[in-house]
Each structure stands twice: as C-alpha cells, then as structure tokens.
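agent> Task received from the user: take the single chain below, predict its 3D structure, and emit structure tokens. No templates, no multimer pairing.
agent> Plan: (1) validate residues, (2) run structure prediction, (3) serialize to tokens, (4) report one or two observations.
agent> Step 1 OK, no nonstandard residues flagged.
tool_call: predict_structure(input=
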Amino acid sequence: MNKQHVKLKSFQSFSPGKWMGGIAFTFFIASLGYFLTMVPGFNQIGQLACAIILAVVYRQLFGYPEAIRSGIGFSSKRFLRAAIILYGLKLNIAIVINDGLILLLRDALVIVLAIFLTIWLAKVLKADKMISLLLGVGTGICGAAAIAAIAPIVKAKDEDTAISVGIIALMGTVFAIGYTLIGPLLPISSIEYGIWSGSSLHEVAHVALAGASAGEDPLAIALLAKLGRVFLLIPVCFIFIFIMNRKNKDSGQPEAKIEFPFFLLGFILLSFLGSYVFGHSILVSDEVMNIVFLVTDWLLTAAMVGLGLNVSLRDLRNKAMRPIIAMTITSLVLSVLVYFTV
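)
tool_result: status=success, residues=342
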C-alpha cells in the first residue's frame, strides 16, 4: 500500500513542463558554452569544457534548479547514453582491423598503463579513488566518452563523473596545445608525430587538434591510432563489469546487481553499421553523417551540463586536486614512453 502511495505521489508530482524545461535548460547552457568558445582563449578548450564550467558556475551562484530537476536528470542520463551510442559511428572498425593491428597493441598497453599508474599514484597521494579511476580510464581510452561509459558500471556519483569529465577536457586541451608547440622541435618525422599524438592524447578532439598542425597524413595516422583506443573501450567495459561482479561476490555481502550497460550494444551496432553499411551507402552522404556527429556532440554537451550542475566547488577543491596531480603525472609518463616507442 505504501509503495502504491509513493508511486501515485511521484506520478502526480510529474510535470511535463518541468521535464521539458530541464532539458531546455541544459541545452541553453550548452549553447552558452558554444558562444563562449568564440572568446579568445576559451576557443582552445572546446564547447564541452566551456559548458561544464558555466554549469558549475551557475550551481555555485544560484544553486541547483530544483524546479526542473527531472528534466536535468533526463539530460544527464538518457542523453549521455544516446551520445555514447551515436559515438559508435565515429569508430571505423574496418580501418582498425585492416590497418591498425600494430597500433592496437600499443593502444592496449597505453590503456593498461594509464589505468594502473593512475590508480597507484592515487594510493600514494591518498587521492579520491573514484575520480582517479575515472581519470585513468579517460586518459587511457577516449576522454569524456570513456568516463561516461565506465561511470555507471563502477557506480560513480554524478558529481564525480562531472568533475572527471571537466578535468579530462581541460587538461587534455593543455596537452594538445603543448604537442603542437613542441612537435616541430622534436627529431621525429611528421608520421611519427601523428602516431605519438594519437597514442597518447586524451580526447579525439585533442588528437585532431594536435595532428592537424602537422598536415593531413599525420592527422590521418593520429586518428587511426586514436580509433584503436576507442575500439578497446568495448572490452574494457566488459572487464570492469566482471571485476565489479567479482568484487561484490568476494566481499561476502549480498551481490549487488550491476545494470548491464545496454547502450554499449548500441555503440557496437552503430560501429559496425558505420564501418560496413553507412560508409558504402549512397543514401547516407557525408553531410548526413556530419549532422549526426553534430547532434552527438550537442547531446553529450547537454548531458555534461546536467552532471556539471551537481558539482560543488567545495567538494571539487577537496576531492579533485590530488587526482589532477595523479592524472597529470600519468599523462606525462605516457607522452614520454610513447614518444620513445614510435
């Protein structure tokens, strides 16, 4: 009887206006993030990071907009999963399998090193374990998308997810700009520079930023190396599912049910469709795919706004500084080690 009463009360309190208002609000902040990128300086960190910054600032100045909580929650969860599914279209599995097996091996080593080194540094620095784990995954694989995929599996709080995404976006941009500055000074070929960039930088956008500075061919090989890391997001997610299930079983406590991330199946399906169907179809032009990619970016940005509205700067100051140090050290180590292997 009590459960029915709670459900009835929840249904009665549901307001389509508040729900749509929350969604509109996240897209409004995402739009402000887009316009902020037109300001010198902010144009280097991208719309995603700018939108998160604005969301966090709004939260600190005006508090959480409780009246539209349901819509904001919808954006932060449903849009996030939709964006990850659509992100699969950016992964050309055919290219990775046919031309990138050697790069794939290097990518696997990069991911393992990034995750384990960040976790170890977190223990040494006594840093927040969850944020450090998410940053390790983001550093090793593909930034915000990887963090968003792993977060529900490891039961990360929305606040920790938003903090991690913000850090990876900002620090990844710093490293990408650093690569473009020091690249011409290094005694390596442009192709080797592309491999170095794609195998060690954080986001696909960061790889594109750094790789483009060296020309079309270095950019192509950089993106190929990065695609290998995106491809490995799939097995990494399933490994984490296994680890979490084993951890719950070994703890001696009732096994906690881990919701299977069905959105990963969508990610895999669209990866195959994008690789073997859409890419060879006259019905799906490059213009259509570009529109889909644009929608993906906006959905991901709106979702990150929803998460950013949950961030408290007080907690950020207390929880994030040491994970940032751990991630920075890991990123530097990766950059140096990958450089000497290209």
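agent> Step 4: summary for the user.
Residues 101-125 form the longest helix (25 residues).
agent> Done.
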